[in-house]
Amino acid sequence: MNKNTLELNNIEIKLGNQPLIYFNEEIKAGEVMTVMGPSGSGKSTLLAYIAGFLPEEFSAHGQVILNRLDITRLPPEKRNIGLLFQDPLLYPHLSVEGNLLFALDKNKKNRKGKVNAILESVGLGGFNKRDPATLSGGQQSRIALARLLLSEPKAVLLDEPFSKLDSQLRAEIRALVFEKIQTAKLPCVLVTHDIEDANAAKGPCIHFA
Ligand SMILES: Nc1ncnc2c1ncn2[C@@H]1O[C@H](COP(=O)(O)OP(=O)(O)OP(=O)(O)O)[C@@H](O)[C@H]1O
């Protein structure tokens, strides 16, 4: 059974006429595939292709299959893919709770209960009314993770989400993110420059030239 699998089949991306990426890999449930390589080698471009927002300067072939469904031509909002970036990108005009409710389907029952539970699970129980600007970098990362989990993605893409954190905090947040990905049995692609991220991840490690 290949449920909860992200298949990247013969992905070929060019920038103008210039080949940038050729790529073929399968990421299983709970696995984190690490993508490393020099600046400009196409790491973020691969994530943009998987998520469905490749800029028009690029041309691409190949299939993105998520849980056996070909999502290659679906718009980003229909792909059920969660993203975390270097910046937590919290809405500054909303409280922590407001940020989390925003990510939660309006038709869900017990929305506040779900927010409380997810805050507990990322170690920030009771932070509901806090202004995101008053949170530390690590706390903001935890809220960004909570928001991602509330949106119930079927796969997760991480673009250097730990790189602004100091090394101890980085290890702590990385362990939390990997634990949640494993528990939810999600396939994940992690772009990073840090070999410690790659060592901590369970899954294939790819180097772009
Ligand atoms: N919208 C765009 N238009 C034209 N070229 C682009 C565009 N976006 C990215 N590029 C180019 O595509 C190449 C790959 O960029 P990409 O951001 O994927 O690299 P990266 O490996 O993620 O780099 P970094 O480690 O610095 O984040 C680079 O040469 C970049 O300049």
From TrEMBL:
<dbReference type="InterPro" id="IPR050093">
    <property type="entry name" value="ABC_SmlMolc_Importer"/>
</dbReference>
<keyword id="KW-0547">Nucleotide-binding</keyword>
<protein>
    <submittedName>
        <fullName>ATP-binding cassette domain-containing protein</fullName>
    </submittedName>
</protein>
<dbReference type="InterPro" id="IPR003439">
    <property type="entry name" value="ABC_transporter-like_ATP-bd"/>
</dbReference>
<dbReference type="InterPro" id="IPR027417">
    <property type="entry name" value="P-loop_NTPase"/>
</dbReference>
<dbReference type="InterPro" id="IPR003593">
    <property type="entry name" value="AAA+_ATPase"/>
</dbReference>
<feature type="domain" description="ABC transporter">
    <location>
        <begin position="3"/>
        <end position="209"/>
    </location>
</feature>
<dbReference type="GO" id="GO:0005524">
    <property type="term" value="F:ATP binding"/>
</dbReference>
<keyword id="KW-0067">ATP-binding</keyword>
<dbReference type="InterPro" id="IPR017871">
    <property type="entry name" value="ABC_transporter-like_CS"/>
</dbReference>
<dbReference type="Pfam" id="PF00005">
    <property type="entry name" value="ABC_tran"/>
</dbReference>
<keyword id="KW-0813">Transport</keyword>
